[in-house]
Design brief:
By secondary structure, the protein is of the alpha/beta class. The protein is built from 18 helices and 16 strands.
């Protein structure tokens, strides 16, 4: 039996309900493809996680907050998309989530963190969304069912705000999900949510619905032929079209895992990094497809034997450049793992100064982290130097570092618009070329380099 695990992200889940008919239609079409079962995973409505976060923080700081506006939106959508019988069932379930959210909010005192945070975000976000989408499918005559927390298949550790799913324990909870699929039902699941072995709510970290889709796919592939599709507004593009203005982005048909991880860490909204890393460890291919035209998609997989040298160009603002003695820098990477910031640092390599001093340069993708923890960083040596107010442009492609002329073309493109490159890095096996510039010039630098992308790809 073939199972399609289809995740619908927050960018599609607008609280206005504009995309709901298209999402329902896409699920219906997938379910008609022969012996196929559909497991649909939903993020919270766009902006709801941030709104619930603010509500929790407001309660922690002032002692007063209300979630009524959130649940009023669900009630309004129920009136538009659910038939009378399904609407009644949904509203009964919604009232339970609202009581749960209110009770959780009442326990918040001074700090909004841990299990109360995980419980409020999911009780006000992903769980009601999964319920309303299930009843909307039923209202169209589709035999659907959603899983509640009592039958939750993703079991995690006790790190409530950034939980790690545990394969062995989750496999022990997969039976209810399998039963529904084998009964021929379309199954609906809330993204982002995990449960501890003793039934406490956890969340899988920011963008964790991608992780939910990848992990559930990994569980199910032991029994079925599984395809994992992440539906978005568009597949992966060669650059952000909002930045390119008069240039047309190209569709990127394939990305390797490493390319996707590099691009995502540099600001491209592709797939959450932890989800890609999980997919890589599981050997699981991911399809990123356009909701309105699923024939346009990007495959994220282990290898790509195609003919694109530079796949995409991304940029990041508000970076910092950290320079320290080469000897002291040897210990930095290990401590970054302890601090949980390892992915936000890029090693730009070592250089020998005119004085003979050997230094190592690191690009920090979040300058706020450096400002907050500069004292801790100076433990690695008195001569730690930091330059703030920077940005970075990166050219993504597994083979891009094999063609040094590509970096020359990028540097020339930036020189032509008067952008000074403070540091550049072309290191083997990195899947990227990094150009460090002033943060206020990032967008025009992306346009300049992207205008050369076809010429660069001719080098392959």
């Amino acid at each position: 039996m073939r199972v399609v695990v289809a995740k619908f992200g927050g960018g599609l889940m607008d609280p206005s309900g504009e995309r709901i008919p298209s999402i329902l239609q896409r699920i219906r079409e997938m379910g008609r493809e022969g012996d196929v079962r559909v497991l649909a995973i939903f993020s919270a409505f766009k902006g709801f996680t941030d709104r619930l976060q603010r509500i929790g923080e407001e309660k922690a700081s002032s002692g007063k907050a209300s979630i009524k506006e959130i649940f009023d939106i669900y009630r309004g959508l129920a009136g538009r998309f659910l038939r009378e019988g399904e609407r009644r069932l949904f509203l009964e379930e919604l009232s339970q989530y609202e009581v749960e959210a209110e009770e959780t909010l009442a326990t918040v005192n001074r700090r909004f963190s841990g299990r109360p945070k995980a419980r409020l975000l999911t009780s006000g976000g992903e769980l009601p969304v999964s319920a309303i989408m299930d009843y909307a499918l039923r209202s169209l005559g589709i035999d659907a069912e959603h899983l509640t927390k009592e039958r939750w298949p993703i079991i995690t550790d006790d790190n409530f705000e950034d939980a790690t799913p545990i394969y062995r324990l989750s496999m022990g909870r997969i039976a209810p999900l399998k039963e529904l699929l084998e009964e021929g039902k379309t199954v609906v699941l809330a993204g982002f949510l995990g449960m501890t072995t003793d039934g406490l709510e956890t969340i899988l970290g920011r963008g964790g619905s991608d992780q939910s889709a990848v992990f559930i796919s990994h569980l199910l592939k032991a029994f079925y032929d599984v395809e994992t599709i992440l539906f978005k507004e568009t597949p992966v593009l060669s650059a952000d079209p909002r930045i390119l203005k008069d240039q047309n982005p190209r569709y990127v048909h394939r990305l390797t895992y490493d390319e996707a991880i590099r691009a995502s860490s540099m600001g491209m909204k592709i797939v959450q990094n932890h989800a890609v890393k999980r997919a890589q460890s599981y050997g699981l291919a991911i399809k990123v497809a356009a909701l309105e035209d699923p024939g346009h998609f990007t495959m994220i997989q282990e290898r790509d034997e195609g003919y694109e040298l530079v796949k995409c160009i991304a940029g990041k603002r508000n970076c910092a450049l950290l320079t320290m003695d080469g000897e002291a820098s040897r210990y930095l990477e290990n401590i970054l793992k302890v601090w949980g910031k390892y992915e936000d640092f890029i090693d730009l390599g070592a250089e020998v100064l005119d004085t003979g001093r050997v230094v190592r340069n690191f690009l920090i993708l979040d300058e706020g982290f450096v400002k907050k923890h500069l004292g801790r960083l100076r433990v690695f040596g008195e001569r730690v130097e930091v330059e703030y107010g920077l940005g970075a442009v990166t050219l993504i492609g597994d083979r891009v570092t094999d063609f040094p002329e590509v970096i020359s073309m990028a540097l020339e493109a930036l020189s032509n618009i008067g952008v000074k490159v403070k540091k550049s890095a072309l290191t083997p096996h990195s899947s990227q070329i990094i150009l460090v510039i002033d943060r206020d010039r990032v967008e025009e630098a992306i346009r300049a380099v992207h205008s050369k992308i076809d010429e660069m790809n001719e080098r392959l």
